[in-house]
Design a protein that fits this description.
The protein is mostly helical and 97 residues long. The chain has one domain: Nucleotidyltransferase, domain 5. 54% of the residues lie in helices and 6% in strands. The protein contains 3 helices and 2 strands, in the order E-H-H-E-H. It has a two-stranded antiparallel sheet with strand order 1-2. The model is unreliable at 89-94 (pLDDT under 50).
């Protein structure tokens, strides 16, 4: 799935499907399971809030972690000679999460 682009409608339908499963259905789902059920519904709520604030026609799936994405962005900025304004030169590396 990593790198797959979805229309916003398809992504929103997937969100609705996850909400419809509820806790019990998510715990029984082979891609979620009982060990991850506590993270899925809050993640769906975050996704829904972002979609309200930042509506876009398509979304690209990234199954890598947030920290990896932040690291890649900073590495690309270093290669291009750009400086990430969020981290002053005295603190070029982000705090460990």
């Amino acid at each position: 799935m990593d790198g797959c682009t979805l229309t916003a409608g398809v992504a929103d339908q997937a969100l609705g499907d996850l909400f419809a499963l509820g806790r019990a259905g998510l715990a029984a789902h082979p891609c979620v399971g009982p060990e991850r059920v506590e993270f899925v519904l809050p993640g769906c709520a975050i996704y829904a809030a972002i979609r309200r604030v930042w509506p876009v026609p398509t979304l690209t799936v990234a199954d890598r972690g947030l920290r990896e994405g932040m690291l890649l962005r900073m590495m690309r900025g270093d290669r291009s000679g750009g400086r990430d304004q969020r981290f002053p030169s005295s603190r070029r590396h982000p705090p460990s999460l």
